[in-house]
Design brief:
Helix 2 packs antiparallel against helix 4. The protein starts with 5 loop residues before the first helix and ends with a strand. It has one domain. The longest helix has about 30 residues, at about 5-35. It has helices at about 5-35, 45-65, 70, 85-95, 105-110, 115-120; strands spanning about 75-80, 120-125. The model has no long low-confidence stretch (mean pLDDT about 95). The protein has 6 helices and 2 strands. With about 120 residues, the chain is mainly alpha-helical. It has a two-stranded antiparallel ribbon with strand order 1-2.
Length: about 120
């Protein structure tokens, strides 16, 4: 299995960010409507976005070992043995993705922080 390059990772990031932003935008609008109409708690968009990010990556990678971005770039997530990552590894990946410093570890580790900490890799499908 061949690891993907930075260009593929950028495609994954852009596609997935567009999908997550769309989901979060819709959820935030629904929340704003119900907060106004039903006197429910209003949640700021940033919180909705990061919650959507966590849920999106967790569900997609647990069920399919791929997100829509990885599907578009013909790549998938594998563990150190080349198999599907387990649920704990996916939860670690998703939790670390929410941090802003995740991508800045590429020059030091040759991979993102979420790949390093979860002992996973993104490879060609």
């Amino acid at each position: 299995m061949k690891s993907v390059g930075i260009g593929t990772r950028v495609i994954n990031f852009l596609v997935d960010t567009i999908v997550v932003f769309t989901i979060a935008y819709i959820a935030a609008k629904i929340n704003k409507y119900y907060a106004f109409q039903q006197r429910m708690i209003y949640v700021q968009f940033g919180y909705v976005f990061f919650a959507s990010l966590f849920v999106y990556y967790t569900i997609c990678e647990v069920l399919f070992a791929r997100t829509l971005g990885k599907l578009a770039s013909y790549s998938k997530v594998v563990n150190s043995e080349g198999k599907r990552p387990n649920i704990l590894q996916v939860l670690i990946r998703s939790a670390i993705r929410v941090t802003i410093i995740d991508m800045f570890f590429i020059p030091f580790l040759d991979k993102t922080l979420h790949d390093y900490c979860s002992k996973t890799n993104v490879v060609e499908a």
